[in-house]
Amino acid sequence: MSDNEQLMELYQQLLVLRHFDEFCYDLKMKDLIMNGFHPYSGQEAVAVGVCSLLRGDDVVFSTHRPQGHSIAKGSNTRAVFCEMLGRRGGVSQGIGGPMQWIDKPHNFFCGSIVGSGLPIAAGVALAFKRQGLDSIAVCFFGDGASNTGAFHEGMNLAAIWDLPVLYICENNQYGEAMPVQEFVPVSRISQRASAYGLNGISVDGMDVEAVLNATTDAVAQLRAGNGPVFIEMITYRFRGHYGGDPEHTYRSREEIAVWRNRDPLLLARTRLLARGFSEETLDELESNVRAEMEEDMEWALEQPFPTVEQATDHVMIPLGQD
Amino acid sequence: MPQFVMPMLGHLMEEGTVAEWRVQPGDQVRRGDILCEIETDKTNVEVESPFTGKVGQILVAAGETVEVGAPLANYEAD
Amino acid sequence: MARMSYRDAIRETTAGELRRDESVYLIGEDVGRWGNLFGASAGLLEEFGPARICDSPISEAAMTGCAIGSALYGMRPIAEIMYIDFITIAMDQMINHGVKYHQLSNGQVRVPVVFRTQGGVGMRNSSQHSQSLENWFVNVPGLIVAMPSTPADLCGLLRSAVRSDNPVLLIEHKSLYFTRGEVPEDDYTIPFGVADIKRPGEDVTIIATSWMVLQALAAAKTLADEGISCEVIDPRTLWPLDKQALVDSVKRTKNCVVVTEAPAEGGWSGEAASVVHEQCFAELRKPVRRVCGMRTGIPYGTDLEKAVVPDAGWICDAVRELLA
Question: Catalytic residue at C129?
Answer without folding.
Answer: yes
